[in-house]
Structure formats: structure tokens, C-alpha cells
Amino acid sequence: xxxxxxxxxxxxxxxxxxxxxxxxxxxxxxxxxxxxxxxxxxxxxxxxxxxxxxxxxxxxxxxxxxxxxxxxxxxxxxxxxxxxxxxxxxxxxxxxxxxxxxxxx
Length: 105
Fold this sequence. Notes:
- The chain has three helices and no strands.
- The chain is rod-shaped, with a radius of gyration of 19 Å.
- The relative contact order is 0.11.
- 47% of the residues lie in helices and 0% in strands.
- By secondary structure, the protein is mainly α.
- The two termini are 14 Å apart.
């Protein structure tokens, strides 16, 4: 039940990664493969946690490269490139933090 008195949406049963219909068991945060269909497990697809870690690592690398840039001697192209990289990294991290409808996050 939400604060407005409506029922909270219940996620449909299915694979937590590819949304294949079916019952693949409950989602257990301590087991990264729980709730996944056999095809995703066999394919070795990364879990959402793994994808989140990868996004944060890449964003951190972009930020570190931009911080190492000397503003006094950098060419305009270098400044534009690093500013764009930081912007993309920040956008990716913020998308991770955005609430996903229907998941209760």
C-alpha cells in the first residue's frame, strides 16, 4: 500500500535480468544468480550488481583522468573531451540511483 492509498505494483514473476516469464525463485540479494532464468545463468550474464560496479569503476576512471589534466596547458579539445567524459560518468551514476518503477527501490 502506498501513501496515497493505492496498492503498490507487484513485479510479475519472471527472470530478474531478461524478464523471461516464469517462476525462477525469489530474489535473494546474497545470491547474485537468484531469480534468474537458466538461460541467463548458462550465458553467464552479469547481474545488476555487477553492472552497477562496472559503471561506478568507469565513472571513477573518467573523473581521475579529468582531475589529472592540467588546466593551464590543456588544449580546448582535451578540456571538451574530459568534460564530456565526466558528464557521461555522472549521468550513468545518477541513472543507477534513479528509482526503478515496480521494484520498491
